[in-house]
Amino acid sequence: MMKIGKLLVLITCFNSAVGSAQMIYPGYSDSAIHSAIIETDGIFDLQGSAIKREFSNTLLFGGFIDEGMKGRSFEKHSAVNRFGINANAEIRYINGSGGFMKRDSVAWMIKGGYFALGNLIYGQDAFGMLFYGNESYLNSTADFSNTRLDFAQFQKIGFGIVNKKNKSSVTLNIVNVQNYVDGTIRKGELTQNEDGSQINLDIQGSMLATTGANFNKGLGLSVDVDYRILVPWGKSTTTFQVMAQNMGAAYIYNGMQKIAVDSSYSYTGFDFETLTSDSNPFGDDFSIIDSLGIEKRDVKRFVPLPGYLQVAKLVDVTSVKKVQSFFGIRLYPTFSSIPQLFAGAYWKPTELFHVAGSVTYGGFGNFRGGLFLTLNLKQVNWMLGTEDVFGGVSKKGYGESLVTRLIWKINS
User: Fold this and answer.
1) What is the reported pLDDT for 155?
2) Quick check: 61 and 74 in contact, CB under 8 A?
């Protein structure tokens, strides 16, 4: 692990480790609000375009990564690869039995949530150098340019208003930022001779990252908007949703560093095994930070929150139709992911039990298939599912996913 840690430092040129509402589809549209409602939802989602689930789970949660495991993921890599994590939970209370500011058509809402989102864009050479070392890159150049890392961990508390008839809503949130990382290697090339005794490193990059273990490192404001519109659909009508979540910014005032590098470095007279050993091959007084001209300074600044956008056709759980379609597009505009397209069918074999299936493409990975089971009682609607069936049952998948949602209509 010490060798891997030193190699990661060499690749990234950073000398230390740094440490919602209706975001689940299918989205629901049902009857108007007449009573108080409690809604909760949660997501845990890992997704990659090349790293298999067996590798990512072992890397994140512990265990031994053998050569076969590395090889099965490495061979799936291309010039540009993506990996992302999305873990969030939110609870909302809607005072549907009353009004707001003497308007009976509007209800007030309070909410609270936890969010952790990360995104990594990288090339095959970055993966190869990190997990295989230099043997595959002797007498050649490893290119890890255009590597990007985004990560945000934050909590929010919000107050908003809801249209009782169509459930459109707007919420203003106070946000606490716990951790934040924004890093880019714009140019990165590591060239070696045939026996690895000469290394030339050309690097340009920067990183903003919070440091320390304190819970509060910054505060901000965000807006959540859920706008629903009824449109003609065949011989009837259907509801479309335009949603924006966590659109805002935060000011980091406690424990953030900016690290930047723009330089080249060459060294000869050692082999790669010496470089990755526990001893310092350059001498006790050598500092790679100084030699590469890496600048480190504490900063305070505004940073964008990882906002979320979605446009989708919703499912009407009160409809008499046995089968309904849903589809849409969603994306994180401040992250380096690509837009995600999704579509599926919602089936009501009985009023009590509903089933939905979905297909998605994009986001942090490629194609996925989802399955969602819903228990629909008079006062309670509970959904449990996954956006990645294959990843949930096979280690050959490229991620895993668990989603849940609970809606409780109090005294309805």
Assistant:
1) 98
2) no
Which segments of 106-164 are extended strands (E)?
106-122, 141-143, 147-163
Task: Identify whether the C-beta of residue 360 lies closer than 8 Å to the C-beta of residue 143.
Answer: no
Instruction: Report yes or no: 348 and 360 within 8 Å, Cβ to Cβ.
Output: no
User: In the chain, what is the greatest distance between 2 CA atoms, to the nearest angstrom?
Assistant: 80
Q: Is 289 helix (H, G, I), strand (E, B) or coil?
A: helix
The pair of three-digit structure tokens given for residue 380, joined into one six-digit string:
């309670």
Token pair for 305: 């929150």
Burial class (CB in 10 A: 0-12, 13-18, 19+), 366: middle
Which tokens is 210 given? 């919070």
- Strand, coil or helix: 320: coil
Could you read off the pLDDT of 204-261 as tens digits, one per residue?
999 999 998 899 999 999 999 999 999 998 888 899 999 999 999 999 998 899 999 8
Contact 406, 375 (CB under 8 A): no
Task: Report how far residue 197's alpha carbon sits from residue 195's, in angstroms, rounded to the nearest whole number.
Answer: 6
pTM, two decimal places: 0.84
Q: What rounded mean pLDDT belongs to the chain?
A: 84
Helix axes 124-132, 67-74, angle to 10 degrees: 170
3-state helix, strand, coil in the chain (%, to 5): 15, 55, 35
The CA distance from 291 to 199, in Å, is 14
For the record, the structure tokens of 401 come out as 């996913």
Q: What mean pLDDT do residues 134-155 have?
A: 89
pLDDT of 271 > 60? The answer is no
238-276 CB burial, b ≥16 within 10 A, e <16:
bbbbebbbbbbbbebebbbbebebeeeeebeeeebeebb
Residues in the chain: 412
For helices 67-74 and 53-61, the axis angle rounded to 10 degrees is: 120
Q: Which residues contact 344 (CB under 8 A, 6 or more apart)?
A: 25, 26, 325, 326, 327, 356, 357, 358, 359, 370
The answer to whether the beta carbons of residues 115 and 154 sit under 8 Å apart is yes
Is residue 94 within 8 Å of residue 171, measured between CB atoms? no
Residue 340 structure tokens: 């995600």
What pLDDT is attached to residue 16?
Answer: 31
| Residue environment code for 128-149, b if the CB has 16+ CB neighbours within 10 A, otherwise e | bbbbebbeebeeeebbbbbbbb
